[in-house]
Amino acid sequence: MPCPALPDGFDFTDPDVYQSRVPLPEFAQLRRTAPVWWNAQPHGIAGFGDDGYWVVTRHQDVKEVSTKPEIFSASLNTSIIRFNAAMTRDQIDVQKLIMLNMDPPEHTRVRQIVQRGFTPRSIRALEDALRHRAEQIVAEARRKGSGDFVTDVACELPLQAIAELIGIPQDDRARIFDWSNKMVAYDDPELAITEEVGLNAATELISYAMNLAAVRKECPAKDIVSQLVAAEDEGNLGSDEFGFFVLLLAVAGNETTRNAITHGMHAFLTHPDQWELYKRERPGTAAEEIVRWATPVVSFQRTATQDTELGGAEINKGQRVGIFYSSANNDPEVFDHPEVFDITRDPNPHLGFGGGGPHFCLGKSLAVLEINLIFGAIADAMPGISLAGDPRRLRSAWLNGVKELQVHYG
Ligand code: HEM
């Protein structure tokens, strides 16, 4: 469907498009004029098809794509890890071992196993340790007087949470953190992390996790690794499956939560009424609004398994379909004044954790716990925190990321 509102050559997969603003005004134009729009890209673009991809912008359509895996397959890559012309066939095949890139029934089997590690009880069991960590992180930042909120505060808790959850020994955590960070920031030249460095870090992390699984299988401990790999049969993960699961956690649970926390802090400091309200009442609705506002994952993609119709558009079998959470979360058909940061927003049916299908974020409860713990600790220990500069954005088309946010810890 032609969209005269968008200039020729406009490309939603170009990281530079997101440099100054997310959500893009272009999303609002598309929701109004061409909610499912074909973005032609004749030369092939990282993560998307060779001749273009559909851009799905309305809340209802993003949900529909997410909840119909038989029509919109995840198995041809959902682009959480870069997928482009430079990748070898082997590297593409390897990505199919990651659950995010699987369809039912294979996905259902893996999801049922790993869910055992994410029960409300397992998440509650982490709460005291993570509260303690959050308080330590905030106390250390406060001693500095001022600094970069991203490195001082937002980075640490998500990685510690994953390490605690899996049961990674303390001595190994620095290495895990280093590999995780290298894997997620490849698109930003300032961070000087090449694709090769990112892929090497992924390989090292996978072999570390496979080794940990083998050790725990021999000698079980009271941790999730031991639970998930107990015996190699249909009801457990093989060591290689466990390796790819840890890889996914390190990518999916790390930068996402870090950016929710950073955007949340920035939103509070630019909306002082909301920060005052938070400090006074700590509303239980705040974390969900922070995730809606931040929408750390801009988009994922699916591939049509058959010819189908969506939002008035005719989609052909084999075409790529980009689902843009950051547009859906600002859809005025669903959210009153989506441009307003309102921590009491209720209901808040945002799609920041996905559109409710089989791949809906496995770590949502953990992420919400982390957000609550860190802002609780900040409100207690440094209620006078203030901005010392504008955020510096990460160059990325799929992550709404901030790489630096200077603040005074008050
Ligand atoms: C999947 C967002 C935190 C683990 C997803 C998806 C999104 C998402 C959009 C894809 C949903 C879909 O395709 O329908 C977020 C955001 C987070 C966050 C915004 C933080 C604010 C976490 C954490 C973990 C985690 C803390 C674990 C430690 C996963 C996993 C999947 C996933 C394993 C794949 C699930 C599957 O394929 O079945 N997340 N996530 N996420 N997330 Fe999260």
UniProtKB/TrEMBL annotation:
Highest taxon of source: Bacteria
One Pfam family from the record: p450
| InterPro entries the UniProt entry points to | Cyt_P450, Cyt_P450_B, Cyt_P450_sf
Known PANTHER family for this protein? Answer: BIOTIN BIOSYNTHESIS CYTOCHROME P450, P450, PUTATIVE (EUROFUNG)-RELATED
Q: Which family does it belong to?
A: Belongs to the cytochrome P450 family.
Protein name, please? Cytochrome P450
Q: Supply the source organism for this entry.
A: Streptomyces nigrescens
